[in-house]
Amino acid sequence: MNTAVVVGAGPNGLAAAVTLAAAGMTVTVLEAAPTIGGGTRSGEAIVPGLLHDDCSAIHPMAVGSAFLTGLDLERYGLSWRWPEIDCVHPLDDGSAGVLHRSVEQTAAGLGRDGARWRALFDGPSASYDTLAQDITRPLLHIPAHPLTLARFGVPTVLPASALARVFRTEAARALFGGVAAHAFRPLHLPLTSAIGLGILTAGHRHGWAVAAGGSQAITAALAAKLADLGGTIETGVRVDSADQLPPADITMFDLAPTAVADILGDRLPSRISRALARFRYGPGAFKVDFAVDGPVPWTHPAAARAGTVHLGGDYAEIAATERAVNAGQMPQRPFVLVGQQYLADPARSVGDVHPLWSYAHVPHGYTGDATEAIIAQIERFAPGFRDRIVGYRTRSTTEMSCYNANYVGGDILTGAKDIRQLVFGPRVTLRPYALGTPGRYLCSAATPPGPGAHGMCGANAAEVALAALRARR
């Protein structure tokens, strides 16, 4: 029987392991941390019983993932919950962009921009499951559905700033800009519309869901599925060199590219080793988890019903803060994302004390403390919030990279999503998962289709590895 080793038990490592085990391979997963899950871990903090997601929290790309939905993970305890409203972007004048799962309902709230929102998202969201067959693969491939992909793809090449000018109201521009800012890139650059359009289209099809019981439920379900297929997971096993790797027909790395270069060293072709070592990382995330007594006193009532709230002011302000953090400057008012997962999953709370998830975009490797800036941004749109804080826990960019070594400098996307890395992955190639040596592959979020708990990077890489193994027989 063929054997496989997967280094790293994040969602992509587990996805690769499940795919390989389902093909009949004997699979061992090696995880350096004492617990599996990478960014999809959850745990109690601040108040006993209060459940916080450690990083990945809201899952518009995972809930409809073709890989996850094909595994019947409900059998292993995974279930999804949806907030009443997906996302709200409040503005200083008291108005807000309000994102519903329904395109029509979202458009109805955007006034004179409603028709433009419908024109942009109606068709792609209705055909998202077909579209996903192409956009969850490497960008450079022969498309399965070329016309559907072309209709979606043309706007994605635009800078977010150019696409934002399609809208005439500040609410619509800010709503789009806040989602586009998930790319952690200056919004005037080409292709910065891509991630925002992808998240919005997926969300209009499947909603901005959370996993009941925390994002750890995704990890637990994948691990249980792997165990049923005969795979094993070993925690507390750090791999620092190729000599530590057991012999295997296939070895997958759910690691940052620079870590793979360090482990494999001269066992890689020199051009590939150099490319991985030069891999670029982007801005960081400074995370603060709050325990809050009662609901957040948002000024805009829709924010009190939203699973996600984006705090960044109008579009011009968002664009300015993203330029600043990419230039290594800490803005006074950073872009802040707030997660209210407990609205969809009330069991995360303890009585009237609720877990509030937040992080700010900060420069790569930022060594300062952004806690006060995050609190101030929430206070800006929820006066009185400070008085409701029971306690909080912070994770700086350094602590984020200790929590998950793939988050170099606090970069939770596992790499800057600039044009080259967004199109090709870690190196310029049509084979982004291959490492140039037989049987060895990269499957982390540094590879297409990129970050998220969807598992598609791992599943895609494992399918490539299995095809190459069959060809060698």
Automatic annotation (TrEMBL):
Coiled-coil segments on the chain, per record: none
InterPro entries in the cross-refs: FAD/NAD-bd_sf
Name of protein: FAD-dependent oxidoreductase
